[in-house]
Amino acid sequence: MRRAATGGALVGLMLLAGCSSDVEMPAPAPGDQAAESCRALMAGLPDSLYGQERVTVRPDPEFAAAWGSPAIALRCGVQRPEGLRPDSQLTVVNDVAWLPQPTDRPTLYTAVGHQAYVEMTIPPSYSPPADALIEISDLITENVPALPAGEL
């Protein structure tokens, strides 16, 4: 059953001039253990998400993906979000906890509690954002091992 319950730094996305289907975003640099999980996650990503087709990511797409325009962006192996605290309000989608930022009108969601942090930027035009998080949450569960209970 698919369900959603509402309980770092923002990715600067930019369409490259003259190439409307290309998205530029900073490439994450995960550690060895996270990189292995991220490779498995990236291999399973869909060709379309939220009805949007996958687009080219630059400079390095190994741990990044994007769909549509405005781009829905995913980066795997990002740093632990600075705003993550033991009392952070998390959004849980298919048993994956996401830290929404900013809290009042989130556009950045970071999956926490797994061996690698997975960050998604979902522009406000895609509503509700949980629709985009559902499929990615399932892939995280399948490919990125959970941390021990209570660890974020």
TrEMBL record:
Q: What PROSITE patterns does the database record attribute to this sequence?
A: PROKAR_LIPOPROTEIN (PS51257)
Q: Which Pfam families does the entry link to?
A: DUF3515
Q: Which domain of life is it from?
A: Bacteria
Q: What is this protein called?
A: DUF3515 domain-containing protein
